Amino acid sequence: MRSFLFALLVALLVACGASPKTEVFMSPQTVGTIYSGFTVQLRALVAYNQDRRVTWSSTGGQLVTTNTEAVFVAPEAPGTYTVTATSVGDPSARASVSIVVEAGTGFVQTSVRNAANGQALSGVNFRYCNTQGCTPSTSVSNPSENPVGDYSFQLAGGTYNLQVSRTGFLPVIIYGVTVRHEQTTFLEQIQLVEDQGGLTGSAGGQITNAQDGTVVPDALLELRAGINATTGTVIATATTNLSGSYTFSNIPAGNYTATVSKDGFTPNRFTVTVVGGQTLLNQNASISPPIADRQWRFVLTWGQTPSDLDSHLTGPTPPSAGGGRFHTYYAAKEYSLSGIRYANLDVDDVTSFGPETTTIYEPTGGSGVYRFSVHDFSNKDSANSNAMAASGAQVRIFRGSTLVATYSVPNRPGTLWTVAELDLTNPSYPILTPINRMTFMSNSAGVQRIGELEPFQNLPAK
To answer: Is 114 found in the same domain as 95?
Structure first.
């Protein structure tokens, strides 16, 4: 429709005898206020010049361009930004649009436990710090006000380092907490470690291949202080043995980030907890072989219980299939058509920890979003289970060799976690949207589709 309107405008100008001087038109011509991290799709049309190409520029933010189309990604810093399209054939011809960016407000939710015994902790202090400074310390000290150790905060949009502390426990920093307007960021469960006067402990686990579930020997692990730490001093290293196992010994008690890497794999990060005088095992992780840039991989990991969490991916079928949606899960692991494998459940784990891995190998080109969900098969008949919320489940989403996002299960009851939606309508600029909705689904339940339910019908035994 917009292309038609542009063409009509050009025709009218010609009919009126206007000068054939090159002109550039942009749609939309005006943009209202948007928020940090949000996007605007723009389009340019060149008139009176055989060269229809344009170059794009902006005074801030990020631009993803494909010739006459561009997507503007709003930066964190509030302000007014200008996006300009300039004719390649006549650089004196250009069109611009101003975009006002505001930080907005969003929410952060987390839960805090004693790493030694799993007990919920009240009276925890939080400070959110960014380049503008730190928020005042906040605390819930009355257990009756916070019986399950849950915490929720409303903050201006941006990226923060979260300082967490409590009397009698070692403080920890969680790096890179992103807040977006009208969205809730769910953090992984925080395991605070008691302060035992410098006592050391040990930690260990196993590293597996996310693509096929096999163990990964000779992988290097680097340990840094804090959660989600990407820089800073490496305080210890370890290498996996032939069974993929690693051990960090005599480490000061606290919370750490382990970065695991090996040639031929995309590096991954995960949290390692060390309790003084103890050895905490089963702190497992996986690494994934790189995939093509057009491909997407969803890797689910969790703790010892429940034993069986299931990955479910739904998405649009190719236009040649006449519409509809496909559904991959343990009973239908592969979706393929005319010899093309579009999506596959690469690894199905039924014995705790994961990984359970699903890959989009070829975008279908169909209309609609891909939706990734996690179903608690172990407790599928429960109407009040909190087992998945307590499992420490996380979903890591990769595009090519890049870790795009990590989502932690909300601390809410439920047996179906709708994690995120992925829009590949414009392959050059995919849109990943967190959902993080917990609902109850029994044996005949289903994952959410657009405007309807997709039942898990006639499920075979596992």
So the answer is: no
Per DSSP, the three-state class of 441 is: coil
CB 60 within 8 A of CB 81: yes
**Last-in-domain residue among 169, 192, 215:** 192
Instruction: Look up the pTM and report it.
Output: 0.86
Question: How far is the CA of 375 from the CAs of 120, 255, 297, 380, 447, in angstroms?
Answer: 25, 29, 18, 8, 9
Return the ∠ at Cα 445 (arms to 444 and 451), rounded to 5°. 135
* DSSP helix/strand/coil, 423: strand
- Closest alpha carbon to 118 in 286, 242, 222, 273: 273
pLDDT, one tens digit per residue, over 140-169 is 544 455 557 888 888 999 999 999 999 999
Residue 98 and residue 109 in one domain: no
**Residue 460 domain flag:** no
Do you find a cis peptide bond into 355, omega within 30 degrees of 0? Answer: yes
Residues forming beta bridges with residue 66, ordered by sequence position: 69
**Residue 388 in this model has a pLDDT that exceeds 70:** yes
**What pLDDT is attached to residue 367?**
84
Each residue of 261-275: pLDDT tens digit? 999 999 999 999 999
CA 24 to each of CA 1, 40, 47: distance values in angstroms, whole numbers, following the listed order: 18, 19, 6
The reply to whether 175 and 206 lie within a common domain is: no
Which of 102, 127, 152 is the endpoint of a domain?
102
Distance CA 394, CA 96 (A): 42
Q: By the 8 A CB rule, do 314 and 360 touch?
A: no
Rounded CA separation 124/172 (Å) = 11
- The answer on 34 and 120 residing in a single domain is no
**178 and 257 in a common domain:** no
430 and 333 in a single domain? The answer is yes
Range of the domain at 239: 200-280
Residue 441 and residue 320 share a domain: yes
User: Nearest Cα to 233, choosing from 252, 246, 249, 207?
Assistant: 252
181 and 326: one domain?
no
pLDDT tens column, 161-176: 999 999 999 999 999 9
